[in-house]
Amino acid sequence: MFKTRALTGSLLVLGLLAAPSAALAEADDLTLTPSESIEAAGAVDPTSVEAASLVQSEGSLVSSSGPTVVEIGGDASEGVVLTTPNGDQVEIGLPGDPDKRGRLVGDSVVFEETAPATNVVVQAVEGGGTRQLITIADDSAPRRHEFSISIPDGGRSLVSDDGSVLVVDQNEQLVTSVDAPWARDAAGVAVPTRFEVNGSTVTQVIDFSADSAFPVTADPCWSCWWEKGRRIVQSRGGQSVICVGKIAIALVGAYRGQTPNLTQQKACSNALGR
Q: Any residues with CB less than 8 A from the CB of 120 and at least 6 apart, and which?
């Protein structure tokens, strides 16, 4: 489990993160160096997500590119903290060895060998949110990668129809979401992947094989929802929708650029008493 972190911290952490390029050369005996992990992920990324700039602030690496402030810890046990404008926090624990220290490479923090043949590249994303690029060097790596997440009292996590993950509070207000998962091998071929949820644990399962072209990259991408009046409901046919006021903005898990139908809009209106 990760440790809750405030904005204050030891400058020693910054020294470990901001390792000079010479220090990166010492990692050549690893299966993938930090730079190789970043390059491998960028080569096959099917999304338009862009990494946000990180600045050092009293022991943390912080991005404020959107309404949500993103803090990335110096070691894996600290994970990532998303802080909304109203002060709510979502805490995300990284998979694998919690004792691994991060290396700052450009706008990415790379945690090396968090599991056999596995690096995790953590970024803040433009507009607020965070992604964790799992880079897998060969088939000795685990296929299951567990992320812990803070869930409000009375809340729950669920997998939506398209495979994305939603975390809601006791009033079914959306707290955070994880985009539908993707994984690609080095040739750009899709690798089967899915999310599983169990309480406060979100697991990405990556079903690569010995025949996959390595490295394989997978990318959980988390968004933080802070506007009041959002609610998850189910419309006719069992489809879930995200509601803002009386408007259904989209199907859950595919909310970007989607146009809800009248049944979904009515479901939102009824659910919120509008």
A: 76, 94, 95, 96, 110, 111, 114, 132, 133, 134, 135
What is the three-class DSSP state of 76? helix
CA angle 65, 97, 190 (to 5 degrees): 65
> 25 Cβ partners below 8 Å, 6+ apart?
none
Residues present in the chain in total? 274
Q: Please state the domain extents for the chain.
A: 11-228, 229-274
Distance of CA 135 to CAs 24, 47, 52, 202, Å?
A: 17, 16, 20, 18
Q: Which residues pair with 203 in a beta bridge?
A: 146, 196
Strand, coil or helix: 14: helix
Q: What is the 3-state secondary structure (H, E, C) of 215-226?
A: CEEECCEEEECC
Is the four-CA dihedral 39, 43, 44, 49 of positive or negative sign?
Answer: positive
Query: Tens place of pLDDT for every residue, the chain, 274 residues?
Result: 433 343 333 223 344 444 433 333 333 444 799 999 999 999 999 887 889 999 987 767 999 887 789 999 998 999 999 988 778 889 999 999 999 999 999 999 999 999 999 999 999 988 788 999 999 999 999 999 999 999 989 988 988 877 888 888 887 777 888 888 999 999 999 999 999 999 999 999 999 999 999 999 999 988 765 554 555 555 545 555 566 544 444 444 334 334 455 555 565 656 555 4
Q: 207 phi and psi, to 5 degrees?
A: -95, 65
**3-class DSSP state for residue 242?**
strand
